[in-house]
């Protein structure tokens, strides 16, 4: 599943040679400034059914889907 940016990890993997230099630059800037961009902290929350009746909220747990780029960085 994708985060709020709808960029899949398979797309990033297929473009890894094109993305390595820009992502390295971004990662180095984040380290130098000690800033992690707020847009990379936004998660899409999805309920995941654990067990029991599906009509009870207590039978679900939240799953946070972060942007793939934030997982890399």
List the helices and strands and how they pair.
Blueprint: H1 9-14, H2 16-33, E1 44-49, E2 60-65, H3 68-72
Protein name: Reverse transcriptase domain-containing protein
Account of the 3D structure:
By secondary structure, the chain is α+β, with helices and mostly antiparallel strands. The chain has one domain (9-71). 40% of the residues lie in helices and 16% in strands. The chain has three helices and two strands; from the N terminus they run ααββα. The chain has helices at residues 9-14, 16-33, 68-72, and strands at 44-49, 60-65. The chain has a two-stranded antiparallel sheet. The longest helix has 18 residues, at 16-33. It is elongated and about 50 Å long. The two termini are 18 Å apart. The mean pLDDT is 91. This is Reverse transcriptase domain-containing protein.
Report the principal-axis shape: elongated
How many beta-strand runs? 2
Question: Order of helices and strands, N to C?
Answer: HHEEH
User: What ranges have pLDDT less than 50 throughout 5 or more consecutive residues?
Assistant: none
The share of residues in helices is 25-40%
Average pLDDT, rounded to a whole number, is 91
Q: What share of the residues does DSSP label as strand, in percent?
A: 15-25%
Q: Give Rg in angstroms.
A: 16 Å
How many distinct helices? Answer: 3
Q: Give the tally of structural domains.
A: 1
How would you characterize the largest beta sheet? 2 strands, antiparallel
Give the strand order of the largest sheet, numbering strands 1, 2, ... along the chain: 1-2
Q: Whole-Å distance between the termini?
A: 18 Å
Secondary-structure class: alpha+beta
